[in-house]
Amino acid sequence: MKVAIVGVGNRLMGDDGFGSCLAEIIKDNTLGAEVIDLDTSNLLNIDINKYDIVVLLDIANIDSEYGIYEVKRSSDYDFSLHDLGLNLVLKLYEDKKFYVVACKPYIVDINFRLSEECINRMVKLFPIFKLFMEKFGVKINLEVSDIEKLVKEKCLNILEDK
């Protein structure tokens, strides 16, 4: 079973950078899946045919602070995926399983960093996400303390010198 973990988001728009940031953090520490930081690119820019399972990391207007959802074509969830039209992708790739690891945003506006609220949600979500990925044979070799450190290094302010 081939798995892709795809981070989606615009890091210039505050919490919208959640998916892109998390993908960057886990990319070099994940076994059993290809991790792709899609940034603001279109989901159709990757070869989805190579994968059986696609796990999207993105923000979503959900009632809870975070969650993991299986997405089906008839889904009632309101996932933006940046005007791509997730229903179109799901229709094109009906033989694939899609999941969204979602974080509820606190601020989506011109802001070159994730909000503290989003970071706290990411930290709470990470162990759940890590365990979820293990169901597909994917191992993420990071702990919550690593996430806290790496998000501060890689995602707090993209304009600061590192």
Can you summarize this structure?
This is Hydrogenase maturation protease. The chain has helices at residues 18-26, 86-92, 116-134, 144-154; strands at residues 3-8, 30-31, 34-39, 53-59, 66-71, 97-103, 139-140. With 162 residues, it is α/β, with parallel strands linked by helices.
Q: How are the elements arranged and paired?
A:
Layout: E1 3-8, H1 18-26, E2 30-31, E3 34-39, E4 53-59, E5 66-71, H2 86-92, E6 97-103, H3 116-134, E7 139-140, H4 144-154
Parallel strand pairs: 1-3, 1-4, 4-6
Antiparallel strand pairs: 2-7, 5-6
Family: Belongs to the peptidase A31 family.
Keywords: Aspartyl protease, Hydrolase, Protease
InterPro entries: Pept_HybD-like_dom_sf (IPR023430), Peptidase_A31 (IPR000671)
How would you describe the overall organization of this protein?
This protein is an alpha/beta fold and 162 residues long. The chain has one domain: 3-Layer(aba) Sandwich (Rossmann fold). 28% of the residues lie in helices and 22% in strands. The protein is built from four helices and seven strands. The strands form two sheets. It has a five-stranded mixed β-sheet. Helix 1 crosses helix 4 and helix 3 packs across helix 4. It starts with a strand and ends in an 8-residue tail after the last helix. The mean pLDDT is 85.
